[in-house]
Fold this sequence. Notes:
heterodimer, A: alpha+beta, 2 domains, four-stranded antiparallel β-sheet, 5 helices, 57% helix, rod-shaped, B: alpha+beta, Gyrase A, domain 2
Amino acid sequence: MNMMTLQRYKNELIILITLLFLMFSFIYKNAANTYVHQNKMLIQKQIMELNSIKALKEQWGGKQLANKLKVLKTIVSNSKVALFQKKSKKLHASYKDLTGSELNKLTNKLINIPVQIVQLDIKQSSKNLYTMELKCKW
Amino acid sequence: MSLVDKNNQKLLIHKDMDSVSLKHSVEIILTPEFYTFISEELDIKFAYQAKQIAQSLFDDYLDSSHEYQYHVSKHGESWYFYAYDIKEIEAFLESKGIEAHRVSKIYFAQELNIELTQPIKISNQNVLISIDDTVTILPVHLIGRDTEFKTLDLSKVKLHSGVSLGASHNSLISLKETILLSSIFVILGTIFIIEGNRTTASISKDNEQLLALLDDNPSYSSTAIRESILAKYKPINRVERAKRKTIKEISKLLSAKSELSTLHIEKSKVLAEITTLENRIINQITQSAKEKHLKTTVTGKTIKVEKSL
């Protein structure tokens, strides 16, 4: 193609070049849309998983849980704590002669500490007195 | 006389010329047989303005059955206007063996005005002459017998205002349409690129957040590890929350006229026994438990409440 032909068809050439620019930019836009559509869900799922893991591990395996459990020993008088044995990441506790309100306080405290309740036994020993046995882990 | 320059770069085109054979590009100089010329003193600054009015200047001089192209150039205070039919010129050139692609530029013999202090004999019948600063062709017999003819050496002639053969054709698409269409395409293209960039940027924030989380916890980069950790903690979360919710629900069943006998929680079950002395309270407890989706069994004055986790 010589210069003469190029000059003759320069208008057509300009339109062709700008049309190609339009086509490429359209393809780029579509490719960007497809890329985002395919990856956004995946990335958000991964973020959600990571945040969930972080939150769940912190909640059900937090390092401060052993300290928080000490309150279960001090919330009632020492004479009512028959057993309070903390071993590894497990607690075995036993209480006797708990009044209704003491039982309520103890239970409320327990359910607000994020430990796994393996076993909980509350029995009425006599009128308005209860025994409680608790096994939990974290 | 040389109507072809020594380097064969310029060629004077006139109707009586002989056929030529070219192996290289040439610049051609058209004699007035191929164009119509008007010189006007106009208060116009730019060539594009002059070109805009060119067609109207030639209205009374041109054959409307032909399609003309226009060329303008400024000489001193005057504007030179040329009208020519490129198809006719091309056809003539072809008849003389000059292929269109060999023509690099077209000039007009008007530019030879300065050279034409004396007429130039271009053929046996015609001379090229300048009359009142307008180059024209006259038959030889109209020139006096004692007139001396000048020899023109085209290689020494300086030409300034020419047009390329390609540019002289009317394009299939007009300049106005070209500007309009190409502007629309460029604007749309730019919008698409901006939109594409914005779309890509919308994911980059999430991507950065993910990378930051993975940097903090590199051990969770594997999907399998993440799924295994979630598989461990999700059931714990669900069951432990259910245990606590059930304890709260059972405690809400109790009143001044009822008391808890036993509460037993194991891996996937919560069992409680509530005793009361009044049948009305038994019904109340049973009704409330039902609303809370707790299973109840009444044995005498004892209500057994159960929930599977």
